[in-house]
UniProtKB/TrEMBL annotation:
Protein name: Wax synthase domain-containing protein
BP term (GO), one: lipid metabolic process
Location in the cell: Membrane
Native organism taxonomy: Eukaryota, Viridiplantae, Streptophyta, Embryophyta, Tracheophyta
Membrane topology: Multi-pass membrane protein
Annotated source species: Eucalyptus grandis
């Protein structure tokens, strides 16, 4: 395990160095094919780096963050689009976390223009109220006795409890990451989920409530070019 942690630290050190390079060249290399060629070694590297991690917890998350999410953002960045542009007006402390983490900058103006806003209460910094997270954590705590007696719990109910557990774990973990980024950079962040259990349809679930960062990246990177 010690070797895995060492590899993990090495991987993310290389990620920070690579993103620093991308941020630096953006000041001299114009958007378009030239910038894409300039950052293409970084994109290839981000596909290779997660292969040095063998555990699901570290390797899986790293693969999602850099090989998938970050690479899509870098491709958009090469053409002057996406959350990393305009790069000239953003600091390195902004560029790195936004590039490799599933976060989106909170824009109050855009939020007021949405026809179908979130059902949960969100403050001006893009965070849900602390009570929202407390209630969800208490639900997970209430599940713990059932896990200890899972032989007596119906498998369907147990699987539903696991799904809720995974969702709450993701939301709380991403909220913690967002709070850390906000503390370091002063950037307001939008939540990644909009109460998906309140979805009225599959489209509502996937397009408006579940993993919003992925939706916001796929739309300009995949949907619009092939439309």
């Amino acid at each position: 395990m010690a070797g895995e942690i060492s590899n993990f630290m090495t991987v993310w050190t290389l990620v920070v160095i690579s993103l620093t390079y991308c941020h630096t060249i953006s000041k001299t290399v114009p958007v378009g094919t030239k910038r894409l060629l300039a950052i293409s070694p970084v994109i290839v590297l981000f596909f290779i780096l997660p292969l040095s991690l063998t555990t699901i917890s570290l390797g899986g998350l790293t693969s999602f963050f850099i090989a998938w999410l970050c690479n899509f953002k870098l491709i958009l960045f090469a053409f002057g689009k996406g959350p990393l542009s305009p790069s000239r007006s953003c600091s390195l402390a902004y560029f790195i976390p936004v590039a490799c983490l599933p976060i989106k900058i909170h824009n109050p103006v855009e939020s007021t223009k949405k026809e179908e806003g979130p059902c949960s209460e969100i403050n001006e910094r893009g965070l849900k109220s602390p009570m929202n997270y407390v209630v969800k954590c208490l639900v997970i705590v209430a599940f713990l006795p059932a896990y200890e007696r899972k032989v007596r719990v119906h498998p369907v109910i147990l699987n539903l409890m696991y799904l809720v557990h995974v969702y709450v774990g993701l939301e709380v973990s991403l909220a913690v990451v967002g709070a850390m980024v906000r503390a370091l950079t002063g950037i307001g962040l939008e939540p990644q989920f909009e109460e998906p259990y309140l979805s009225t349809s599959l489209q509502d679930f996937w397009g408006r409530r579940w993993n919003l960062m992925v939706t916001n990246i796929l739309h300009p990177a995949v949907y619009l070019p092939v439309r």
